[in-house]
Design brief:
Elements: H1 2-27, E1 36-40, H2 46-54, E2 59-62, H3 65-71, E3 80-84, H4 92-98, E4 102-108, H5 111-122, E5 129-134, H6 151-161, E6 165-171, H7 182-199, E7 207-209, H8 216-221, E8 226-229, H9 231-234
Parallel strand pairs: 1-2, 1-8, 2-3, 3-4, 4-5, 5-6, 6-7
Length: 243
């Protein structure tokens, strides 16, 4: 009974999030279709993902390789999976092999990770893998991502040295309470401006993945094209109790 109730809450919450995305986009004179919502289901059972899928959603994200590898085969094959956050380079091959319908990696934070993904994708018969370069916009040592001053070089490496990867933009992860400051978002937008100039690409070719449950509306108003929503859709995460 509790599971069924939670399922109903998840699909209702998704509709509410999509409505808030629409409103935030309108405030910024943007189209809601310019913003992708990724439902991040970390620690949540597949039954809840299926409920959100049945409500029409297709973009789902996970933060751990083992979890996405376990969930992907249990979901329909038209799900477009996002791996979010720091990826250990030695897990790139397992990620690609275990999730044939992997849509995007958010994000690559070193040439080493890019090279391992390149090698893994090259060994498979699939389309180039979309990747976002992860930028540490807050300066916190605990956060993964390149410094803003290094974003152009890593983007150039992906674009020019990794033919089986598709450089698709930038991402940043907010604070521990799932919020970011306008300065974080401005920094990421500034990185995009630099990359577009140096690599001679249009802003439309460089996505901004920024904004989570606590700050996605502000992120959209400041130009985000990809928001990652977890607890607002699925409820608070359930972590095992450490003994």
């Amino acid at each position: 009974m509790a599971a069924r109730a939670a399922e109903g809450l998840a699909s209702t919450a998704l509709r509410n999030v999509l409505q808030r995305v629409q409103q935030a986009a309108e405030r910024a004179s943007r189209q809601a279709s310019q913003v992708r919502v990724v439902a991040v289901s970390k620690t949540k059972p597949v039954v809840l993902l299926q409920e959100v899928y049945d409500a029409g959603h297709r973009h789902f994200g996970e933060n751990y390789v083992q979890e996405i590898i376990e969930k992907a085969p249990q979901m329909p094959k038209d799900v477009q999976w996002h791996f979010i956050g720091h990826l250990q380079s030695n897990k790139a091959k397992a990620l690609l092999a275990g999730v044939p319908n992997l849509y995007m990696v958010e994000g690559v934070d070193s040439p080493k990770v890019a090279n391992h993904l390149e090698k893994a994708v090259a060994g498979l018969e699939r389309n180039p893998l979309k990747v976002l370069v992860q930028v540490n916009t807050s300066g916190e040592e605990s956060k993964s991502g390149v410094e803003p001053s290094e974003c152009v070089e890593l983007a150039r490496h992906v674009k020019l040295e990794c033919p089986h990867l598709e450089f698709s933009g930038l991402m940043t992860i907010g604070n521990a309470d799932y919020t970011s400051t306008p300065e974080n978002f401005k920094t990421l937008a500034s990185c995009r401006d630099q990359i577009c100039k140096e690599l001679q690409i249009s802003p439309e070719q460089c996505e901004l993945s920024m904004g989570m449950s606590g700050d996605f509306e502000l992120a959209i108003e400041m130009g985000s094209t990809n928001v990652r929503i977890g607890s607002t859709i699925f409820g608070a995460r359930s972590y095992p109790v450490k003994t």
